[in-house]
């Protein structure tokens, strides 16, 4: 559990930080490469740290038990009289806890993905390049910030809260699916409305002819496609989870 969680946290947070730190590079390839390379190293470091922590904990427990037994043998302290235990049967086992539909590793990776989504407006609102045709220009239209970006950030935060609720409830439910559907449709409606009522892209790019009216059409198609795919996948996952419970 520690390996994927720490690898994801180290790599994801490093990549997010590098995206901001490397702003102002000349080309998109250089920009992404300089952001991705440290993140990969941080992910490997996180994975090794997770494995090392597990080994260290087991080693301490093992040697602690061995030292305790050796100390008892050296002092010659008598072993406590063993009490006769009642016969054990499988019926004495506690009832099993239901398996989680969302593991800790999946929660960590989902948190990283939502963090990237949350940071996207801030990243796109600052100039990414100091040279070339995009020098000094942000990709996002500054007018989009009011009121669209705050509403977008609110929905992202609510989605993360929903993810936490699902994790602690351990299993899907139709109520959780209904809330997720509302959040998904609200996000889709927000993005589509913004695409058709605002420039979204920096107006400078429209003036230069780099972006046209097709941006709204392409963006709407992608939003609808992702929303439908996400809701269908979530419906199937919820139905399978409920079916396993009988």
Automatic annotation (TrEMBL):
Disordered: annotated span: 71-98
Entry keyword set: Membrane, Transmembrane, Transmembrane helix
Top-level division of the source organism's lineage: Bacteria
Entry's transmembrane regions: 41-61, 107-124, 144-165, 172-196, 216-238
Protein name: Integral membrane protein
């Amino acid at each position: 559990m520690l390996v994927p969680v720490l690898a994801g946290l180290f790599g994801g947070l490093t990549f997010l930080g590098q995206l901001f730190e490397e702003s102002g590079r000349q080309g998109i390839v250089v920009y992404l490469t300089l952001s991705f390379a440290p993140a990969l190293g941080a992910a490997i470091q996180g994975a090794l740290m997770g494995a090392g922590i597990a080994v260290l904990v087991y080693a301490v427990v093992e040697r602690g038990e061995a030292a305790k037994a050796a100390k008892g043998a050296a002092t010659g302290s008598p072993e406590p009289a063993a009490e006769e235990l009642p016969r054990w049967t499988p019926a004495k086992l506690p009832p099993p806890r239901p398996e989680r539909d969302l593991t800790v590793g999946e929660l960590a990776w989902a948190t990283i993905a939502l963090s990237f989504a949350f940071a996207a407006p801030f990243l796109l609102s600052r100039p990414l390049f100091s040279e070339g045709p995009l020098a000094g220009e942000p990709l996002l239209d500054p007018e989009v910030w009011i009121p669209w970006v705050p509403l977008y950030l609110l929905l992202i935060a609510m989605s993360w809260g929903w993810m936490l609720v699902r994790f602690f409830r351990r299993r899907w439910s139709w109520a959780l699916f209904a809330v997720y559907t509302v959040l998904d449709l609200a996000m889709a409606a927000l993005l589509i409305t913004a695409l058709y009522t605002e420039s979204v892209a920096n107006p400078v790019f429209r003036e230069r002819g780099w972006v046209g009216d097709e941006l709204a059409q392409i963006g709407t198609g992608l939003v609808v496609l992702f929303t439908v795919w996400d809701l269908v996948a979530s419906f199937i996952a919820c139905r399978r989870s409920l079916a396993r419970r009988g």
